[in-house]
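A reminder from the course coordinator: this example appears on the midterm review sheet, so study it carefully.

Given structure:
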């Protein structure tokens, strides 16, 4: 079984614009030009992907409910989808609690936050209301790392993970996009997990293996960051990491199934 633990989807009417905006933000040529649910399913099928963790990011507080309603619609339409909700730091703590409760009741399995897009520091006191509201109800997936910003540095997430040990965090991109030499700060943190996306184009299979060994093979999830990268290409790059078949199976599906209880 293969589960893509990190995929973005957008409504048809804005999908092309949103996909281009992501490529422009990272100055990367996108491997697919349309980040719709249908395109994800089409490209994922070619790679043999069975299920997908899907989400989108609110850059304004007023977008939160409409985005979550869109994700709910998609997970209701497609049994292959596992929904992660969005939140925004400008919501009040009461609003965040209400939104988390609504999403839990509607079958969401996690939260996705993107500090660089949403313009907040992971360890900002104002953002801690999110961690208090979410608690142990849902894991929080963070975009982590970027050498152009300091919003989502590994050290900031490690600090918060220590402060909120009951919250499970997922540090995307092998723990820190462009900051892979800093991920040792997560050593020993049992409430931090990692995904493989937007990294394997930039680090060697040997380096990937070293990070997995350092942080624990039972803490990693296969992911594509669609539409950044296509599932076929990401799976090919993943299979170049020197792993046993048992280790691959853990990362491809078992670990994320255990965390999300699916």
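Designed residues:
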């Amino acid at each position: 079984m293969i589960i893509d633990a990190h995929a973005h989807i957008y409504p048809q009417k804005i999908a092309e614009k949103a996909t281009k905006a992501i490529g422009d933000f990272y100055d990367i040529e996108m491997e697919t030009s349309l980040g719709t649910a249908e395109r994800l399913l089409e490209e994922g099928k070619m790679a043999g992907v069975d299920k997908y963790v899907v989400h989108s990011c609110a850059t304004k507080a007023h977008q939160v409910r409409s985005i979550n309603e869109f994700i709910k619609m998609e997970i209701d339409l497609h049994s292959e989808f596992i929904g992660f909700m969005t939140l925004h730091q400008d919501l009040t703590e009461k609003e965040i609690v209400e939104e988390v409760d609504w999403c839990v009741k509607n079958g969401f399995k996690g939260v996705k936050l993107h500090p660089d897009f949403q313009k907040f520091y992971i360890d900002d006191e104002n953002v801690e209301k999110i961690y208090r509201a979410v608690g142990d109800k849902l894991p929080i997936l963070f975009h982590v790392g970027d050498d152009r910003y300091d919003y989502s540095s590994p050290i900031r997430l490690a600090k918060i993970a220590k402060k909120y040990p009951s919250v499970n965090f997922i540090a995307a991109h092998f723990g820190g996009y462009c900051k892979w030499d800093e991920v040792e700060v997560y050593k020993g943190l049992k409430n931090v997990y990692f995904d493989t996306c937007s990294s394997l184009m930039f680090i060697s299979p040997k380096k990937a293996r070293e990070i997995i060994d350092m942080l624990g093979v039972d803490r990693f999830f296969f992911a594509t960051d669609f539409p950044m990268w296509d599932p076929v290409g990401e799976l090919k790059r993943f299979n170049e990491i020197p792993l046993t078949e048992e280790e691959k199976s853990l990362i491809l599906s078992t670990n994320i199934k255990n965390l999300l209880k699916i």
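The mean pLDDT is 94. The chain has ten helices and eight strands.
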